[in-house]
Structure formats: structure tokens, C-alpha cells
Amino acid sequence: MRLILLGPPNAGKGTQAKKMVNELNIPQISTGDIFRKNIKEGTPLGVKAKNYLDEGLLVPDELVVEIVNDRLDQDDCGGGFLLDGFPRTVVQAQALDNYLEQNNLNLDIVLNIHVEKDVLIERAVGRRVCKNCGATYHVEFQPSKKEKVCDVCGGEIVQRDDDKKETAEKRIQVYLDETQPLIEYYQSKELLATIDGQQEIAKVTDDIMKKVKEIS
Ligand code: AP5
Ligand code: MG
Ligand code: ZN
Fold this sequence. Notes:
Strand content: 5-15%
CATH topology: Rossmann fold
CATH class: Alpha Beta
Number of helices: 9
Mean pLDDT: 97
Helix content: 40-55%
Number of strands: 8
CATH superfamily: P-loop containing nucleotide triphosphate hydrolases
Order of helices and strands: EHEHHHEHEHEEEHHEH
Number of domains: 1
Distance between the termini: 8 Å
Radius of gyration: 17 Å
Bound molecules: BIS(adenosine)-5'-pentaphosphate, magnesium ion, zinc ion
Strand order of the largest sheet: 2-3-1-4-8
CATH architecture: 3-Layer(aba) Sandwich
Structural class: alpha/beta
């Protein structure tokens, strides 16, 4: 199965992706996670991407498309994949269409997680992530058992640099300008399913899995 999780920053894409890949047995491909890993390791890609992430801007399409195409070529994507945070522009969506066409593949569904702006900001400022394994928490909505300690690996839990209020607002604006047009893009291909993201985490997962089962 080949799926896309679409939605504004802090809609809950990463949170849902983690639950979905367990059930569907396909890899989660998060471009944001790939960039953060490269920044942490100081790779050439990380050096190129860092400023964009810090500023809440999109990394240039050419760079993103190359990375995703390479990732999709890997063996573990043979049985399908879940894209989290890609595509984010019409150019990226067209590049993905080209890749799929060249490889005789098709998309099964695009899940659009809808969340209002004020809720997005609340989620951003309260989000915490594990420095070591990337597990995601929220101080109020999804707290770790022990304060500042990751439930999964015992690592330190910190705030993401781009979750400061100003940068979170900037990312939402970038989403509205660059990414929101993809709703129509996938609607016209009859691939879009919209999910109410302002429910409890488990209920959002249920709604997503219902849609996925409808088409499988
Ligand atoms: P990326 O990492 O993809 O960031 P994003 O899209 O801004 O999304 P987030 O990771 O912030 O949110 P999410 O939807 O995953 O929410 P989460 O599950 O964590 O990208 C970062 C940067 O990388 C970009 O700004 C850009 O620079 C670059 N980049 C990445 N991809 C790119 C691309 N394709 N092209 C160009 N540049 C790219 O949840 C958020 C919080 O809410 C958590 O605290 C969670 O606990 C809580 N929460 C989740 N669900 C619920 C719920 N139902 N109820 C209550 N709380 C909830
Ligand atoms: Mg994410
Ligand atoms: Zn951890």
C-alpha cells in the first residue's frame, strides 16, 4: 500500500504515522526526520538544510525530490510506503507522480489531517521530542511517564528548535501558501480523504484505519 499523510505542521502526521506503520507493515518516510537526522550528524545534506528548518521555510524542491526518490528506491519500499511530510509543493507532487509512473506504481490514498490554526499553535508550543530516538510527546496531551525522560529509550526530551511560537506560525503560513494547494491536487485525482484531526489521538487513528480498510 502506498499512502501520503498530508496536513499542516503539528496536525499529528508523525504521531499517526508511527501507529499506522505498525499495523500496515510498511516504512514511514518523514522528510523532516531525514533532515533533522542529517543536521544532527553534520552531513553535507544537513548543512544545506539547516537554515531552512531553523527559519521554518521549505527546503528547495530539487534537494527534497532527490532524497525521496533515493529513499523510495530502497528495498524496504517494495511492499509500499507511508509518506509523512512529502510532498509539500505542487512541484514535489508532480515529481512523485513521475517517479511512480516510471516505476509502474500508483498511490492508494492521500489522508488529509485537518486541524484549525489555534490548535496547531497549542500543539507546537507543547510538543517535546526525544533527542535520542525522536519519539514525540506533548506536555499536556501526550506526556511522558517521567518528566523530560523518554518512555521508549530513556533519552532526554527536548523542544524542537522550530516549535517556538514565531517559527510555528511561520510554518503554518508556508503551509497555507505552498502545501494547501495539494488538497485540490489530490481531490481532482480522487485520492483524497479528509480526517478530523481534532479528536483524541486514538480516535484519529481509528478514522484513518477505517478509510484505509475501505480501499484495501
Ligand atoms: P516536518 O518535520 O515535516 O514538520 P511539519 O510538517 O511542520 O510537521 P510536524 O512534524 O511539526 O507535525 P506533525 O504533523 O508530524 O505532528 P506531530 O505528530 O509531531 O518538517 C520540518 C521542516 O523540514 C520543514 O519546516 C521544512 O523546513 C523541512 N521539510 C520537511 N519536509 C519537507 C518537504 N517535503 N519539502 C521541503 N521542506 C521540507 O504532533 C504534534 C504535537 O501534537 C505533538 O506534541 C503530539 O503529541 C500532539 N498531538 C498529535 N495528535 C494529537 C491529537 N489528536 N490531540 C492532541 N495532541 C496531539
Ligand atoms: Mg512530524
Ligand atoms: Zn527516546
